[in-house]
């Protein structure tokens, strides 16, 4: 599948949702190949590009984060060949950064989360990111008892017998170590050993290996440990899992402790303070990279003090206190043959570059994103010049880059090779699918023109109507098996009334219309009696559906899966949700304020929802849909022994013992709902110094108000 990308900042909700669905499946596929089978199809840079794009889209569209998001998963399921080992502490992966500015943002986020000014007082360790296989080695009373791969982060493969063949890993630790010790690090193969192995294989007439990382991983997964022993694998220690007691209070101190216990640690690891020193060390390691006897693909930065690591905590799959600064990806030159325009579900006209095939990072590329019409003209989102104002034209020789995008973007034009007589590309002012006017809306609040030009045809436009149906039946919406893109196209184009599906309610009347028709679906090529019965069964199985799936399936702009879940949790039933959205139509009043107070629902999202419910055509479709399906009431939050579980909490004013991010994370861990504003449904307001209008609102509504000390007393 090839998705045409635009910049994250210019993505529409429809484009972002489709892209995240593709990314989830694509990354899972490559995780299985890389972690589970040691047979990757793409380079590390290309894999990083997939992950980076996914994270960037999720950052801009938090409401679209999927349940199967790569940001919530680590590695791949362990192979059944080896016995499973459940990690005492999960083995999480790291977020990636790709530029000095990204590193600056990471460092700033640490200071900001901890509520400190960026005064270079926080130390970071910087260590090479080894391109090997992650390993957790457990010792009890000083004796090695098991070793396991990362697996899916929770469960790994037991490779103890093979780990015991690696001479660099001690089978016993010195006297006096803690009773339980889990040392984590990377198993790798040195470049020199890899070259020697390939020379040996070639001399014996056998197939040679592709790269050291895959060879190391494959060697470690041998059922015959003697094969592993013959491969001369090596190990660097840099982290830990369960520890019955901590022998040091810093990251650097822990690594030095591992060294004293007999583990090899990377000599290029340093403790640094300022951003300039951190980035300088990255560049030094980059320059030394060709001369190292092991493969690295970046540098890892970690907050040094362990107490600060504990305060910073974790996201779903990665720590806030660490990041990997990856080395840059590749670029290539090719010819832009033509520019095509695609139309999405929300009417967005997206330009796509069709390229003369070129290999970038080991992959043949034929398409690239052109983002929007301003990007083609050489203008950024604020009207500033990009590429020094150089526009992009058909026939140009262009520079293509695969850093950060699933498919590449065009980053510049080679003006010296521009053909004589070339003309500026004229972006269409009408929809190429239906011929309706295509316009760029103006944001009523900011007065800024939208970067995306949209078709005004609505459901008159085939492209929008078809894409809306595809969204409706997608996996995280109604998930109707047997109604894929090909089938949707067929039913939409069908002229026979008994077969036609033009809007979502038509899906649920298909079987009834077919029963009275002489034109039977089962007699049409590509279907058949069994497949038609399965299709009807799949449709009927969705006549009752979870509320958040129903809301997501409506295709409301800016409402992704996460936002739909927030709405379902807040309103509990569709009746309450629908009534509230109708009441919020004036964009003022209690219903409007309540919608905006839901944590994670901003004014842009709230306005999009209300505007959807103000459109008569949308209400007509929803009404007909509700005649066919029943949205289930949302489940109440799981009760816990926390005194704030299930309660709606608002934090206001200055917090002195924790930052706002820490407070929110703490409340959510305890099962509370955190709101951004006070309403009659608020249960508790935690007010610090300087609390203003929210405190006044709390008093007006009679909401309980406590200070920060009382909050900590409450949650003991």
What report would you give on this structure?
35% of the residues lie in helices and 18% in strands. The protein contains 24 helices and 24 strands. The two termini are 51 Å apart. The chain is α+β, with helices and mostly antiparallel strands. A 5-stranded mixed β-sheet has the order 2-11-10-3-9, sandwiched between helices. A 5-stranded antiparallel β-sheet has the order 14-13-12-15-16, with no helix packed on it. The radius of gyration is 28 Å and the shape is globular. Helix 1 runs antiparallel to helix 2, helix 14 packs across helix 21 and helix 16 packs across helix 17. The protein has 5 domains: 155 residues, Nucleic acid-binding proteins (OB fold (Dihydrolipoamide Acetyltransferase, E2P), Beta Barrel), CATH 2.40.50.140; 243 residues, DNA ligase/mRNA capping enzyme (D-amino Acid Aminotransferase, Chain A, domain 1), CATH 3.30.470.30; 62 residues, no CATH class; 87 residues, DNA polymerase, domain 1 (Orthogonal Bundle), CATH 1.10.150.20; 67 residues, Rossmann fold. Helix 23 links the parallel strand 23 and strand 24.
């Amino acid at each position: 599948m090839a998705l045409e990308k635009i910049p994250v900042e210019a993505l529409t909700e429809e484009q972002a949702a489709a892209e995240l669905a593709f990314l989830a499946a694509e990354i899972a596929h490559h995780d299985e190949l890389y972690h589970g089978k040691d047979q990757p199809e793409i380079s590390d840079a290309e894999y990083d590009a997939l992950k980076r794009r996914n994270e960037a889209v999720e950052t801009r569209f938090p409401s679209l984060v999927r349940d199967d998001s790569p940001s919530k998963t680590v590695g791949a399921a362990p192979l059944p060949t080896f016995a499973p080992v459940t990690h005492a502490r999960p083995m999480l992966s790291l977020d990636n950064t790709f530029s000095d500015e990204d590193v600056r943002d990471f460092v700033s986020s640490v200071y900001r989360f901890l509520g400190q000014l960026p005064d270079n007082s926080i130390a970071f360790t910087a260590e090479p990111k080894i391109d090997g296989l992650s390993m957790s080695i457990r010792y009890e009373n000083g004796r090695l008892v098991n070793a396991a791969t990362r697996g899916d982060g929770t469960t790994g493969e037991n490779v103890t017998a093979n780990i015991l063949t690696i001479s660099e890993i001690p089978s016993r630790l010195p006297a006096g170590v803690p009773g339980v010790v889990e040392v984590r690090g990377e198993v790798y193969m040195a470049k020199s050993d890899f070259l020697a192995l390939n020379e040996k294989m070639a001399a014996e007439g056998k197939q040679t290996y592709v790269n050291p990382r895959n060879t190391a991983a494959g060697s470690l997964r041998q059922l015959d440990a003697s094969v592993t022993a013959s491969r001369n694998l090596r190990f660097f220690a840099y982290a830990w899992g369960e520890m019955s007691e901590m022998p040091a209070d810093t990251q650097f101190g822990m690594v030095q402790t591992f060294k004293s216990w007999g583990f090899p640690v990377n000599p290029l690891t340093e403790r640094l303070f300022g951003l300039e020193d951190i980035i300088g060390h990255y560049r030094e390691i980059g320059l030394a990279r060709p001369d190292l006897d092991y493969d690295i693909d970046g540098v890892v930065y970690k907050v040094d003090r362990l107490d600060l690591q504990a305060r910073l905590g974790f996201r779903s799959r990665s720590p806030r206190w660490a990041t990997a600064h990856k080395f840059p990806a590749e670029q290539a030159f090719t010819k832009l043959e033509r520019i095509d325009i695609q139309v999405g579900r929300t009417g967005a006209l997206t330009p796509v570059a069709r390229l003369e095939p070129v290999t970038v990072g080991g992959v043949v590329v034929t398409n690239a994103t052109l983002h929007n019409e301003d990007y083609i003209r050489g203008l950024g989102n604020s009207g500033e010049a990009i590429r020094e104002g150089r526009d992009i034209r058909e026939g140009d020789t262009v520079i293509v880059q695969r850093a950060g995008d699933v498919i590449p973007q065009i980053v510049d034009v080679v003006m010296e090779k521009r053909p004589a007589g070339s003309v500026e590309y004229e972006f269409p002012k009408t929809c190429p699918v239906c011929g309706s006017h295509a316009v760029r809306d103006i944001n009523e609040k900011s007065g800024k023109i939208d970067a995306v030009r949209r078709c005004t045809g609505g459901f008159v436009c085939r492209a929008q109507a078809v894409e809306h149906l595809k969204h409706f039946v997608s996996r995280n919406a109604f998930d109707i098996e047997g109604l894929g893109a090909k089938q949707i196209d067929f039913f939409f184009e069908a002229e026979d009334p008994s077969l036609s599906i033009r809007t979502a309610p038509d899906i649920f009347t298909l079987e009834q219309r077919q029963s009275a028709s002489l034109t039977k679906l089962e007699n049409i090529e590509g279907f058949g009696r069994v497949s038609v019965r399965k299709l009807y069964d799949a449709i009927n199985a969705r006549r009752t559906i979870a509320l958040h799936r129903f809301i997501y399936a409506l295709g409301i702009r800016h409402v992704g899966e996460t936002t739909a879940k927030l709405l379902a949790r807040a309103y509990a039933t569709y009746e309450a949700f629908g009534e509230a959205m109708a009441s919020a139509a004036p964009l003022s009043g209690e219903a409007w304020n309540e919608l905006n107070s839901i944590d994670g629902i901003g004014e842009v999202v709230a306005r999009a929802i209300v505007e959807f419910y103000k459109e008569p055509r949308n209400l007509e479709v929803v009404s007909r849909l509700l005649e066919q399906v029943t949205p289930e009431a949302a489940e109440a939050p799981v009760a816990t022994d926390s005194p704030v579980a299930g309660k709606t909490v608002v934090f206001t004013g200055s917090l002195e013992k924790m930052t706002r991010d820490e407070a929110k994370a703490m409340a959510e861990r305890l099962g509370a709902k955190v709101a951004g504003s006070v309403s009659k449904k608020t249960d508790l307001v935690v007010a610090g110094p300087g609390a203003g209008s929210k405190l006044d609102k709390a008093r007006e509504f009679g909401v309980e108000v406590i200070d920060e000390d009382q909050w900590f007393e409450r949650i003991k």
